[in-house]
Amino acid sequence: MASTHLYTYGITDDEVEFETEGVGDATRVYAVEHGSLAAIVSDSETMEPDRSDENLRAHDDVLQELLYRDGGRTVVPMQFGMVFKNARALKGVLRGGRRAFRKALNDVEGRVELGLKILADEGATVDREAIAASVEERLGPVNDGEADNGLFSDRLVLNRSYLVERDDRAAFDEAVDEIIDEYGEEFTVQYTGPWAPYSFVDIEIGAKR
After folding, report:
1. Where exactly are the transmembrane stretches of this chain (predicted)?
2. Are 161 and 147 in contact (CB under 8 A)?
3. Which tens digit of pLDDT belongs to each residue from 43-77?
């Protein structure tokens, strides 16, 4: 029988277990705890899971469920592909990174990430500064942090992620509706999320083994 490793989705501070479609055809997600931290994992037969669309989607789906299951949890997400040889190795990382994980959990407590992109038609003349100022005026009061994701296409007018309190979600949605009302006929407005707050945590994990 193949050795079972631990594919890790993220870090939270509460035990959880549920059946789901995880990465690598896993069927159950559960917690490996150390002190006040809980790593959310599923069993994996490989240390290097295939970066397939199916697995990438499963990784995000598990994090999505954690955000809202049983009233929701604060989650520090791991990037795709973080696998530990066994529970001892994982607990060693939790122990060594305890302060960083606790700080990250405090920084994003009760918050989710939401994304907004505004795209123009090819070759259109656009006043990017005016649009950015209008968006900031509407979204500034209802978010706790912003991250610029870069204008990697000539069509992109705005591409940002926002850290939003769960309790402010309705107000944020209303503000985005106002942006769609103003720009939706001339531009493509893409509103995505909620996501685990990838853009607002920065923890470097060393050797996985």
Report:
1. none
2. yes
3. 999 999 999 999 999 999 999 999 888 778 899 99
